[in-house]
């Protein structure tokens, strides 16, 4: 039986830190920024939401096929995976019918496939192959879900101001709020249209408009929609011209998106530099390995070479994390 070398475990840990940092740089965070603006919106939400309402006050009549295990692997995954409520919410935010079982199955296939390839084909040590296999099996589906969530939220944010304008026109023509929301759900493209249609269907089944809005806000987890719900809640308590309020909100959201795009354009050079600097050591390592494999073999066979490799990976990962932090701004 092959003995597990402690230095290989340390090497795997260094690779894990580096890949996580690179994944954070490339994919970014899928959730909304948790800065002062988000905390202030959360405080207003808790203050405006009536006590005793929400998910506990009205039954959820919407039947979701993803909540029913349909296979043995699905039931096994739901029994073993931790924090399933959080995982289920993340999968729902993708807008696709991804079950917990399929998510877990993808991770298992990636982990086993990577381990087999590294151990049997690439002839890597068993400890390193298992560590990298677990890294790919856990991090691969996670980053893929993050990317799907980010793409859907970007599409939602781009269409959301137009949906608010459509609601404002409905209010000015004399339609109630829920009818204006339903009209926006019929007219707007997805994902905005499907979210508004869900709100209208929930109200038809007896749920209050405010509770349906807050459920959608929790599912989307984006500040733009929370601003919309808070505007409706404030207008309900204080009165005033709702059409004018939502019109101002639409203008603010457009300016907010324009500022975000402007910042992205101005920081593109720094992000490109970070990606190049982060990938250049791996590119040069691969080129030298193709030309002279024995020259770099000591980095894996000699203990001093492994320690130097670990130190380089850790320092490189720290640098990538710092550069990612420098090019991210909260609006």
Written account of the structure:
The chain is mainly alpha-helical and 331 residues long. Among the domains are: 155-256, Receptor-associated Protein (Up-down Bundle), CATH 1.20.81; 267-331. It has 14 helices and no strands. It has helices at residues 6-27, 36-48, 72-80, 84-93, 100-121, 126-172, 177-187, 192-204, 209-220, 223-238, 242-266, 268-291, 293-301, 303-326. Helix 1 (6-27) runs parallel beside helix 14 (303-326). The longest helix is centred in the middle third of the chain and has 47 residues, at 126-172. The chain is elongated and about 80 Å long. The N and C termini lie far apart (56 Å).
Question: What secondary-structure arrangement, pairings included, does this model have?
Answer:
Blueprint: H1 6-27, H2 36-48, H3 72-80, H4 84-93, H5 100-121, H6 126-172, H7 177-187, H8 192-204, H9 209-220, H10 223-238, H11 242-266, H12 268-291, H13 293-301, H14 303-326
Helix pairs in contact: 1-6, 1-14, 2-10, 3-5, 5-6, 6-7, 6-11, 7-8, 8-9, 9-10, 10-11, 12-13, 12-14, 13-14
Task: Kindly list the characteristics that best describe this protein.
single chain; 331 residues; mainly alpha; Receptor-associated Protein; 14 helices; 0% strand
In short, what is this structure?
The chain is mostly helical and 331 residues long. 78% of the residues lie in helices and 0% in strands.
Strand content: under 5%
Shape assignment: elongated
- Extract low-pLDDT stretches: 25-33, 50-67
| Number of DSSP helical runs | 14
The CATH topology of the domain at 155-256: Receptor-associated Protein
Distance between the termini: 56 Å
The topology string of helices and strands comes to: HHHHHHHHHHHHHH
Structural classification: mainly alpha
According to DSSP, the number of beta strands is: 0
Percent helix range: over 70%
CATH class of the domain at 155-256: Mainly Alpha
What's the main sheet like? Answer: none
How big is the Rg?
25 Å
Summarize model confidence as the mean pLDDT.
Answer: 80
CATH arch. level architecture of the domain at 155-256: Up-down Bundle
